Amino acid sequence: MSIIVQQLINFLQLGSIYALTAISFSMVYGIAGLVNFAHGSVFGVSMYVLFFVSTLLFQVMESTWLVYVIALTASCVVTSLVALLIEQIAYRPLRKAPKVTVVVSSVGVGMVLQYLILNTAGSKALRMPKLIPDIKFALLGVNIPLFKILIILIAIVTMILLNLIVKKTRLGTAMRAVSQDTIAAGFMGIATSRVISASFVFGAVLAAIAGSLYGTAYSIFAYNVGEQIIWWSFIAAVLGGIGSIRGAVLGGFIISAISILAPMVLPVSSYKDIVAFAVMILVLLIKPTGLLGKKVNEKI
Amino acid sequence: MNENKRIGEPILRADNLHVSYGKIAALKGVSFEVHKGEVVAILGANGAGKTTTLNALTGVLPIKSGSVQFQGKSLVNVPTNRITAMGVVHVPEGRHIFPDLTVEENLRVAAYLYESKNKPLLQERKEQVFDLFPRLKERIHQPGGTLSGGEQQMLAIGRALVTGSELLLLDEPSMGIAPKLVAEIFQTITKIAKNGQTIMLVEQNAVMAMKIAHYCYVLETGCVTYEGTSEYIQANERIAQAYLG
């Protein structure tokens, strides 16, 4: 019984993190129609900013909550700026270029960013300071750390807020319009390139929030942290239907379920990667747009 | 001959427009005027450059040379969204409504430029659109993609009206629509024009277009070959035979 509860919590925790990173990855694709492979490095940047700011703050203050809020804010600001810079340098000049060119450009800028991290922060693995107080409480006979519950809650609240912004606000409606028909959005008076920039900022902020949760859950990370996480969120996003927020959430939780369940039945735990890719390929064979993806008419 | 009789003052003046797709010239020195309160039709066969003309006006295609003035301001090299803000609003061929947004959300997007400053204006213009197209009101919460072709055309026109257009550019409003609805849409366009809306209309269905247009330009392979009032064009047998079937 207790192992089931524990694994269930682990599943929800990992699923929340994957769901958030998958949404953050999907955001730019959904609105600008481009696959942003530099996003993994943006995630990496967020982890390092969080690490340095919180380490610094813990020398002068004790409240972990305050440190968390300040460090997360700093990381959101820095990652947003980095994302905007990437958009200006690597994507904007290629608006009319073939899609493959843009993919190559995004991989390139991602590598540059990752090596910048490596050269400034070093290759040594770091341990994220504890951003959420280390409290445990009993639930169904199991001792559960508070941070696991908070990770799930923060992820859910973030997703609800994002959904409200996209559905109800003026910017959100404009984002949906641009994502469905960029040309017609221009006819409505929407500054489409600003909305695309906004999607990069949204993606970066979501990555920073997800980064803070990842750091809290797994503490240890190194310069290439974004590389792994971005592959998993890419699979999650594609599996659920790239560009769709609900699809990204679904994909995130499916990948999480595979990561938790597969090692229980397979002889070697890293075989879970094979299972995840196999599931993705299988889904795409049956439904090429992903589980919740919609058929997109080729844009002219 | 009264072929140059126009009403109102000119609000749009295009002079010697050149547009090309790569090396292929699509417009080779097109000039025209639209006067306030007029319905101006651009007629011509497939590939004559009708849609290209509208796309050039609203910045969808770059203008290679020539000038376009709208109320004294140049439209050359101005981004599409700013052209909409100036009052020139494009209803594109194929309608381009937002398929996953509801009818109401489609109309709301059209108020993007003023919604935060003037919510009642959106409400007022929405009501006007529903008066013109009662069908849209019945479908208010339906996603745009589930509407019929004719209803989508109504939504596309309604959306352009919500932006507060001073000059409405309509590209092939009759294309791909059930014949019964074509008549209804043309009646509504006439009604909008009677309310004082200036319209520039691109149509392959020349007979239909000339019924509601005051003034026509006939395009042939990127050049204006004839222009005049609808009566003049209709009376001129040579034009009718050569271009308008």
Provide structural commentary.
By secondary structure, chain A is mostly helical. Chain A has helices at residues 2-32, 39-58, 64-91, 99-121, 146-168, 170-180, 182-187, 192-218, 225-240, 245-265, 272-286; strands spanning 126-127, 136-139, 142-145, 220-221. In chain A, 74% of the residues lie in helices and 4% in strands. In chain A, strands 1-4 form a two-stranded antiparallel ribbon. Chain A has a two-stranded antiparallel sheet with strand order 2-3. The longest helix of chain A is centred in the first third of the chain and has 31 residues, at 2-32. The mean pLDDT of chain A is 91. Chain B has a 6-stranded mixed beta sheet, sandwiched between helices. In chain B, strand 7 (167-171), helix 7 (179-194) and strand 8 form a beta-alpha-beta unit. Chains A and B meet through helix 6 and helix 7 of A and helix 2, strand 6 and helix 3 of B.
